[in-house]
Amino acid sequence: MSDPLVARMREFGTTIFAEMTALALRTGSVNLGQGFPDTDGPPAMLERAVEAIRDGLNQYPPGPGVPELRQAVSEHREDHYDLAYDPDGEVLVTVGATEAIAAAVLALCEAGDEVIVFEPYYDSYAASVALAGAVLRPVTLRPAGGRFTFDPAELRAAAGPRTRAILVNSPHNPTGTVFTRAELETIAGLCAEHDLVAITDEVYEHLTFDGVPHIPLATLPGMRERTVMISSAGKTFSVTGWKTGWICAPAPFVRAVQTVKQFLTFTASAPWQLAVAYALRHELDWVADLRTDLQAKRDRLTAGLSAAGLDVYRPDGTYFVQADIRPLGFTDGLALARELPSLAGVVAVPTQVFYAHPERGRHFVRFAFCKRDEVIDEAVTRLRKLS
Q1: Which of 7, 69, 157, 371 sees the fewest Cβ atoms within 10 Å?
Q2: What is the rounded CA–CA span in Å between residue 56 and residue 340?
Q3: pTM of the model
């Protein structure tokens, strides 16, 4: 029997995260691959979810999301970014940012439309574009001055008459880059010139380091009315398993995305929504402490990777460090990632799987530092076997 999977999805298969996590479990390796914390979020927030379950909030919540969370998201956007969104029509709760991205692409892109993305990219972007029957137009982020950035001329060249949208992830997974205002102004100028919709993945919005600010694209002149702004609770509050995200956008965009979303998951878990609403209002001091802690973990891991002989790019945000494996005599990150458990008892993620042009990232491997200090230290000790 031939493969029953539709042709446009056959290139995707099992995600690299599932493969690497299974490899870690099978080999007993230290898992610095998948980006999930190994500690819990704010205790009071967790207790709010327990209380909601015990109080019987276990049936379908409203499709757009519970009013408490939509209001809390609206307040958060205004308090932090001076962006006003009506909680009744301009905020939509989703099953994590991944669903928000997929629903936005499916709602806003016709078959054959082109979507610009920056590579390397989170793997769901390409899958969402393929599901929509749209066409991916990658623009490569390359190292320059110790960080990853794009060539403005290459970005401009990627836009054409069929370009419908640009997907912007900042703080950026997997490179750890936080786009500067100048970079965002270049993106905004392209959107205005070609009448593009911007879909922004901002799930690491609170996890930037060394005083580097996160600037939402929607705050730039003329961008609020053409931006679908996406974030979630998972990274901010260390509850990646809750899958509670949201979009903020002008009402026509929200209606479009909700039209699709209602036939994907219809709604999202009420207890988590109420707990996240509480956290957005009362636990941002906890998030500030998390940011400080993660910055120290970043420094701990980057120092250890450098001592092990890797060339390391120090990220300005997210959970992740990019390491160039060539100084250790390796050239293929995917091959190394599959051998690393036997070589050193550590699991990482090969960056090349996040490129439309894999050869451009073949020599990079991504390590996650959102782990306990003792886990990072053990991984670094094991990786020294490679040098």
Answers
A1: 7
A2: 47
A3: 0.96
